[in-house]
Design brief:
mainly beta, globular
């Protein structure tokens, strides 16, 4: 388990193919779930975070190692 933890409302940034995006953490995911058609294999041991882009409002799951405090 990683020591990178975030809470709902935290401002974060992450990298993707077009550069860096900023947004906010919506919630911590600790069980498998589906976002649109993408399956997220989150668990208590390997949590992921549901984040919302500040620019587009799109939501996606990210591993804590991909996120940085903005």
């Amino acid at each position: 388990m990683t020591d990178k933890t975030f809470k709902a409302g935290d401002r974060v940034k992450w990298d993707h193919s077009q550069g860096t995006t900023t947004g906010k953490v919506v919630r911590k995911l600790t069980k498998p779930t589906t976002i649109k058609t993408h399956k997220v294999a989150a668990s208590v041991e390997n949590p992921e975070y549901l984040v919302e882009s500040g620019k587009t409002g799109a939501r996606a799951a990210h591993k804590p190692t991909e996120l940085r405090k903005a």
